Protein: Acetylornithine aminotransferase
Amino acid sequence: MNAKLETGATTRPVTRQTFDDVLVPTYAPAAMVPVRASGLDLWDQNGKHYLDFTSGIAVSSLGHCNPALVAALTAQLNNVWHLGNGYTNEPVLRLALALTEATFADRAFFCNSGAEANEGALKLARKYAHTKFGPHKSRIISCLSSFHGRTLFTVSVGGQPKYTEGFEPLPQEINHIPYNDIDAARAAIGDDVCAVIVEPIQGEGGVIPGDPAYLKALRELCDQTGALLIFDEVQSGVGRTGALYAYMDKGVTPDILTSAKALGNGYPIGAMLTTNEIAAHFGVGSHGTTYGGNPLAATVALNVLETINQPAFLARVKEASDKIFAKLRKLAADYPQVFGEVRGSGLLIGLPVAEAFKGRAKDITKAAEALGLMLLIAGTDVVRFAPALIVTDAQIDEADRILRAAVDGMLNAAPAK
Structure:
């Protein structure tokens, strides 16, 4: 036995300090440590209750420990966990059928995360272009302030230089243009472009909805140049906007779509969806993953998809969205010195801070957390709301009450000017 491995390692006491002691410091998590959750309710090590309006960054859309998902996963746990890609399995075949039947796609590739889904999409786009047009067609167009993952390829494609600093040299033939700028798109997308990747709603970049006219222009430019249009729906997909995928409400169909986050409700899974013609350029051995599409992940995802992709469920998402937007518009009107104009789509919502609170979005979420409300940020100037899609009217009212109390506390604690 390793001398450093103590007996009882699975039950030894741990605290937030343990993170600082033994984990690579890539995150700065909250002081509290969650230990139990159900729906939108969460409790920390001290038994304190929180209302979770983060859903694990738009992941746990059916709530924590959803009973139907727990039952489905438990049943699969007693059948088969993992096989490797030398074999297929029934859950992944059913999931692929369900996703292709519900979307524009003919084919699905499964992996473990949004970054992997985007990595696969970008590799496929280059493979497709090189085979069909030649290696000169390799340039990738992305948007400034976009986010597409943390692999070296996807972080380079993402339009936020702070995430690439220190990792040079970066992959080449990648250019970034302003989001929602049609003229910039026209100037950038030429015959040497193999792919244009875009979020229908920029999430990490500030919760900025894509203008339908802009997305349609991208579609037209890709059609004209032979480039593939990739929609990154890792955050906006699986019901988050009130449609199964955001493209369905935008009037634009991509060539490749990537999905993750809510697809597994917290169980790691990613998916890349595309057409027969494009998928044919990924032959046997050209791409792969050890765990992608394993029976456990596929079982959870299939049950998530079947629950969310129902007209009544999606209609309720839009209803809940309207209620939160109304609350936040009233909040911004009551506290104009703190907040700007709310924006977003469905239950992916951003509330920018006013000039006097620039750079202080995190301070607001910390104040709310102290009172029992978990929120996100999208950059330093936007408070982000991404509650589970099953959020109730009573929970929306409670979140509004807590956020108002948090803002009042901040304003009362501020020194007089």
About this structure: Residues 16-65+311-413 form a domain with the Aspartate Aminotransferase, domain 1 fold (CATH 3.90.1150.10). The mean pLDDT is 96. The two ends are 63 Å apart (CA to CA).
